[in-house]
Amino acid sequence: FYLCSHYGSLGTSKPTHYYVLWDEHEFTSDQLQKLIFDLCFTFARCTKPVSLVPPVYYADLVAYRGRMFQEVVMELQPPPSVASSSSSRASSSSSTLPSTSFDERFYKLHPELENIMFFV
After folding, report:
1. Region 75-87: what's the mean pLDDT?
2. Radius of gyration of the chain (CA)
């Protein structure tokens, strides 16, 4: 179904297309559309409804922020050296891997930010 839940500032509203993949609660189509429409008013960044249901919007924000952190980690990691032969390539690739785990290299949050939605 299509749902246009947000206000278009300059006539720029466009509906969002929703697909129901699995409905464990056996909602009717009207109940499901009303639930999604009502959820569009619960986005924490603004007081107006948004075009995409907030749990999906938050997941997109988390993925975007995670990609930014991962790019920083990858920039700090030294590039693997290119060897001329395949046998030396196999032995040198294991020696160029960082000795720290991914968790140790990944961006650490301040303890006060760990259990809140800081990305909002």
Report:
1. 59
2. 23
